[in-house]
Amino acid sequence: MKNFLILHHGFERPTPEDMVGWNRWFASIADHEVQRAGLRGGREISRTGTKDLPFGKDSLTGYTVIRARDLDDAERIARGCPIVSSTSVHEIINH
Question: Hey, what long-range contacts does 15-18 have (CB within 8 A, 24 or more apart)?
């Protein structure tokens, strides 16, 4: 099994029904979940300077680390995630 990072993009104030969906998804991946956290705002640092990042519909708003056999298996798990804007999946490479 490998570790994969699921990035959650987008924020809208969740309704009670939204929270039921999120809680249902987290319960369904309990055997795969390693860690999760929400994110709020932040700063992007580049060669040209620093800018504050907004918190809204297109923002990076959280992550979940899961264990899966391969990228296809990780995608299958991520597809059940309630999506605000989008979700992406990346294999974590430990050096």
Answer: 18/82
Identify the pLDDT of residue 57: 84
User: Is residue 73 over pLDDT 90?
Assistant: yes
Please give the residue range of the domain that contains residue 78. Answer: 2-91
Q: Which two tokens stand for residue 57?
A: 């519909």
pLDDT given at position 41: 82
Structurally, the chain folds into a number of domains equal to 1
Distance from CA of residue 8 to its chain's centroid? Answer: 3
The three-class DSSP label of residue 24 is helix
pLDDT at 58: 82
State the Cα–Cα distance between residues 9 and 44, nearest whole angstrom. 16
Q: Please report, for the domain that includes residue 28, its CATH number.
A: 3.30.70.1060
